[in-house]
Design brief:
single chain, mainly alpha, 7 helices, globular, disordered C terminus
């Protein structure tokens, strides 16, 4: 991991899943790997336990009512799940970005995320029309 913090270009070159968009700045890639390096293993273990727990999260995730915006990179392994969640949740939007899991790190996508946050702060969904079109709703 340390080599990727010290050489972000190596991280991008050795990433078989193309997690970062091409325009992500090397400093952002380095910060990401530094954050991973500093994250205690029990944090990931807790997340994995939630996923593997047969009891689930204690609620039906498809009944979540607050607005949910999914930002997912096109090479992200979870993108098919995000598409299903965005389609089935009663109040959700989907934003597909370049790259994979870290698709939101590219400058243009960071700007889209911030526009979405501003729109949500104003009480409006930031991708409702796109989602309605995908569902065939006018």
């Amino acid at each position: 991991m340390r080599q990727f913090v010290e050489d972000p270009a190596a991280a991008r070159a050795n990433d078989p899943f193309q997690q970062f968009p091409e325009d992500t700045e090397p400093e952002i890639v380095a910060i990401y790997f530094k954050a991973i390096e500093l994250t205690p293993p029990e944090v990931l273990e807790h997340e994995v336990r939630l996923i593997l727990d047969e009891a689930g999260w204690g609620f039906d995730i498809f009944e979540v009512e607050p607005r949910v915006e999914f930002f997912t990179g096109v090479t992200e392994v979870g993108t098919p799940y995000n598409r299903v969640w965005a389609e089935r949740l009663p109040n959700a939007g989907l934003h597909e970005t370049s790259g994979g899991h870290m698709g939101q790190t590219g400058p243009s996508t960071r700007e889209r995320v911030m526009r979405c946050v501003r729109t949500l702060t104003d009480g409006q969904p930031c991708s409702l029309s796109r989602l309605r079109a995908a569902r065939g709703v006018e």
